[in-house]
Amino acid sequence: MNAQVNIVRDEATPALQALSYKLAPDRRRPFALVLGRKTEGIYRTWFRRGEGDSANKKGWPRQHFWARMAKRTALVAGQTTADRAVVTIADPAIQMKVHGGTIVAKQAKFLAIPMRREAYGVRPSAHTMPGIFFIRSKRAGAFLARMEGKSLRVYWRLVARVTMRPDPRALPPRDQVSAELFRTAEAFVARSLGRT
Q1: Are residues 81 and 24 part of one domain?
Q2: Given CB 3.0 to 4.6 Å as the disulfide criterion, which of 5, 45, 114, 141 pairs with 89?
């Protein structure tokens, strides 16, 4: 699945549009490219910052989600025109971060929620932990566990669905993006009109 989130698509503010109309027609596509590259940079920087700030709450190993989002954020230069730049995050996982929603088990009967550090980032179907077995409790639900000595250790809790809330910090604030783009646009127009 290759879902994409389009960050910028023909949504220039009136101020940016007014600046672009000051340019000669042959300078408008380069103007859109500059703004597209700037947008790509703003989002990549935001995601890299998130990677540095996103220590796992339980201290478990990082899955490098934000670094992955930074790598998958790109200007689609082939779709840039005189009045449009498209920047995408080509990873379906960003949709859930931005909008929230419910994840339902589709390819298996259950979703596996890790309960221990050793299970975090590991799929039970990978069979990397010998001795894992299924247990069900009427009160507590279903689990994957194994015996360790005389103790029963639960590694995953099994659920049919998980609902995630939107993360308000998943994307940079629009005001910040607009301000940075406007500064970049003003500098480009000044250079183009010979007012450096």
Answers
A1: yes
A2: 5
The torsion defined by the Cα of 158, 101, 8 and 16, in degrees rounded to 10, comes to -140
Q: Are residues 182 and 94 both part of a single domain?
A: yes
107-to-45, 116, 122, 153 alpha-carbon distances in Å: 34, 23, 16, 26
Is residue 130 domain-shared with residue 69, that is, in the same domain? no
Helix axes 25-53, 174-192, angle to 10 degrees: 140
Q: How confident is the model at residue 164 (pLDDT cuts 50, 70, 90)?
A: very high
Q: Report the predicted TM-score, pTM, of the whole model to 2 decimal places.
A: 0.78
Structural domain span for residue 26? 5-99+167-192
What contacts 4, CB < 8 A, 6 or more positions away?
88, 89, 90
Quick one: 163 exposed, middle or buried, by C-beta within 10 A (0-12, 13-18, 19+)? exposed
Alpha-carbon gap, residue 20 to 35, rounded angstroms: 11
Spacing of C-alpha 62 from chain mean position: 15
